[in-house]
Amino acid sequence: MLSITFTTPEGDVLVETTMTDSDTVMEVAVREGVPGIVAECGGSMSCATCHVYLEPQANEAFEPKEDMERDLIDGLENCSALSRLSCQLYPAQSEGEVVVTVPDSA
Amino acid sequence: MRGTTPPEHAGTIIIGGGQAGSQTAVSLREAGYTDRIVLIAAEPYLPYQRPPLSKAFLAGDAQPATLALRGEPAYARHDIEVMVGDAVTAIDAARALVQRASGAELSWDHLVLAVGGRPSELDVPIIDGATGDLVTSTSSLEGVHLLRTADDALALRAAASKVSRLVAIGGSFIGLEVAASLSSRGVAATVLVRGDRLMSRVVHPYVADIFRRAHLARGVSLEFGAQVTALVADGRRVAAVQLSDGRRVEADCVVVGIGLTADTALAEQIGLVIDRGILVDDAGRTSHPAIYAAGDCATRLLASGATERTESVHNAVQQAKAVAAAIVEAAPPSKQVPWFWSDQFDLKLQTVGDTGHDTDTTVFAGDTPEKLVVEHRRDGVLVGVTAVSSPREFLQYRRELDRSHAVVNAQA
Q1: A46 vs B341, B393, B396: nearest CB
Q2: Inter-CA distances, B87 with A32, B14, B41, B342, Å
Q3: What pLDDT is attached to residue A77?
Q4: CATH number of the domain that B371 lies in?
Q5: N or C: which end of chain B has fewer CB within 10 A?
Q6: Are A101 and A52 in contact (CB under 8 A)?
Q7: How far is A55 from chain B (nearest CA, A)?
Q8: How far is B218 from chain A (nearest CA, A)?
Q9: How confident is the model at residue A1 (pLDDT cuts 50, 70, 90)?
Q10: Residue A27 belongs to a domain
Q11: Which one of A32, A74, A76 has the shortest CB-CB distance to B74?
């Protein structure tokens, strides 16, 4: 199981839990009720309200970005080099610990 | 038996396990509400998302649990009691009680109706395919589906592996999404469209035409000007759909997607004002001061005196937040410009704001014929945007519209 910790940009822990190979990070966040991950469109890449930041090392635990995700992230106001859409974060490894930062909601 | 013990009490009871119900509960907690919250859902699932039922869920093989809007840990964290598989059968407004199917009564300070709606049924006769006689049996015809719940979608998915000819009645979102999702499962699909354009009520003609070509190119048949006059039966099963102009379209599976009727049964029983839905003000208050309504079941009374009922995730979330704010007597939430999406094959349709047919439009072509953005203006001011497979541009426009909307609100 992959251990996953959701934090605020200041590093305060929001939720600590685990995820399986069949989960996306968005699904975990929704299940746990992580504040700031709205996921309005349910993972169909229509809304970008599941935006998170991932440190490069944590990025390796997940499948890489595809074109549509990259495109949508470009349209976000608070996007950075660390931006990912959590609905596209499918685990690429089944062990380890990752930290996911939830942006401040406007 | 009714004893002398008073019924259990909850500060707020929410009836309905959809987007609006779940959001009201969470927004109440986020607004600092501390009383007991009970959400009662008739279906045997935690409140779940409905949009995927005609899209990815229908095309794929995920289980209903994956549709949940929030999981049990989320409700536990917010101290929200969710009672699934238990319908409310009656409301006693004078005594502030709800009666549950399971028998138990519950009393409330605030009641929220987030009961949604049910798909409109096709009101046409059934005729025998061999004799042409009217089939008088009142039992429904096998192979005819409505789509609203996860169980409806599961039934349709199971049927899809056994049928070869799907006919979707209705050329709007449900019909088109179901045709796209089931053709990706290998079913030959035909969509019957009443008028001469797809999604004619809501989508710009130029955009409708892109979708027309996209469906045709991917093997979906489209029949325009199709007025259904009867369903044709072969024994107890549907065999075809009869149209008024003599066309008969063969089908071993029919999906009826001709609109949604708000579920107003409970509201009517207690005498709330109804106008195609449960009439509410901006804060979601019904005509009873302690009863609120939100989502597909609610009709909003606008300042102009006109009324509007909107079926969308965005609307359900906004109305739920407004209801929560009203219950805790907080300032109403800031309004976002309404938006909507539909996925059909690999095409993504997104609209935001006012995209009415009477707006002035400018079309911006994308880098493929199936990508474009339409700007909608009134008196030169951008009021809405329609985007096809252009999610990044859409997001930017949506933000721009939210920003200008906020400015207008601040000046009002």
Answers
A1: B341
A2: 26, 11, 6, 30
A3: 87
A4: 3.30.390.30
A5: N
A6: yes
A7: 23
A8: 21
A9: confident
A10: yes
A11: A32
